[in-house]
């Protein structure tokens, strides 16, 4: 079974369970996974490119190799700070104290970039609040590791959408009227049963 066939099977299965709401939940989960993957890859490439620019400007040797290591670490959600700190230590060891401090500041700024760029990229792919996305990404990562980056936003996105749809859904008018008629009939029956002994006496 290829990916498209598996996707169609999941949509049909969800539709059988929860009708239109189940199909919408599956589509929302797919959008959330795609958005998280896009956010991780683009953020990792941006951080690696900025780190490479900083290393090249200050003249750290083997900047290309360090950039490749940064990209791998960013994709693994470890961050680019460790390779950049190696460049800072090399500059400081060779007496370039001012340049090493500048690279250190640049490195900290790059390391903090994923806290802002990744949620923005994820929000562009799925229409959810920034707080919900950030909570899903961070909570999922702390709870499940790297896989939690995908699991957390999906769980929160699907749960929030289904809960909002359930809260905002108005019961049909006929169903409300039927319920009121049933309640009226039940109350009348109970009243008749209570008055029956009095009539007999």
Which features would summarize this protein structure in a list?
2 domains, mainly alpha, single chain, 201 residues, 87% helix, 0% strand, 7 helices
What portion of the residues fall into strands of 2 or more residues? Answer: under 5%
| Overall 3D form | elongated
- Measured as a percent range, the helix fraction is over 70%
Average pLDDT reading = 77
Number of domains: 2
Q: How many helices in DSSP terms? A: 7
Q: How many beta-strand runs? A: 0
- Identify low-pLDDT runs: 173-177
Helix and strand run: HHHHHHH
Main sheet: strands, sense, barrel: none
Distance between the first and last residues' Cα? 77 Å
Structural class: mainly alpha
* Rg, alpha carbons: 29 Å
Give an account of the 3D structure.
The protein is 87% helix and 0% strand. The protein has 201 residues and is mainly alpha-helical. The protein has 2 domains: 3-169, no CATH class; 172-201.
In short:
The chain has 201 residues and is mainly α.
Write the topology of this structure.
Blueprint: H1 3-58, H2 63-75, H3 81-93, H4 97-125, H5 130-144, H6 148-168, H7 173-200
Helix pairs in contact: 1-2, 1-4, 1-6, 2-3, 3-4, 4-5, 5-6
């Amino acid at each position: 079974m290829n990916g498209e066939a598996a996707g169609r099977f999941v949509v049909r299965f969800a539709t059988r369970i929860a009708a239109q709401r189940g199909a919408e939940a599956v589509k929302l989960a797919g959008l959330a996974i795609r958005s998280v993957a896009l956010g991780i890859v683009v953020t990792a490439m941006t951080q690696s490119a900025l780190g490479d620019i900083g290393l090249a400007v200050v003249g750290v040797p083997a900047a290309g190799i360090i950039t490749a290591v940064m990209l791998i670490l960013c994709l693994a959600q470890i961050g680019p700070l460790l390779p950049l700190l190696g460049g800072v230590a090399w500059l400081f060891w060779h007496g370039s104290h001012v340049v090493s401090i500048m690279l250190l500041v640049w490195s900290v700024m790059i390391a903090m970039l994923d806290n802002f760029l990744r949620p923005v990229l994820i929000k562009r792919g799925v229409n959810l609040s920034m707080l919900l996305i950030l909570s899903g990404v961070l909570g999922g990562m702390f709870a499940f590791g790297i896989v939690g980056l995908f699991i957390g936003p999906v769980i929160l996105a699907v749960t929030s959408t289904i809960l909002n749809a359930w809260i905002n859904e108005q019961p049909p008018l006929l169903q409300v009227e039927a319920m009121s008629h049933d309640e009226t009939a039940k109350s009348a029956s109970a009243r008749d049963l209570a008055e029956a002994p009095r009539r007999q006496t």
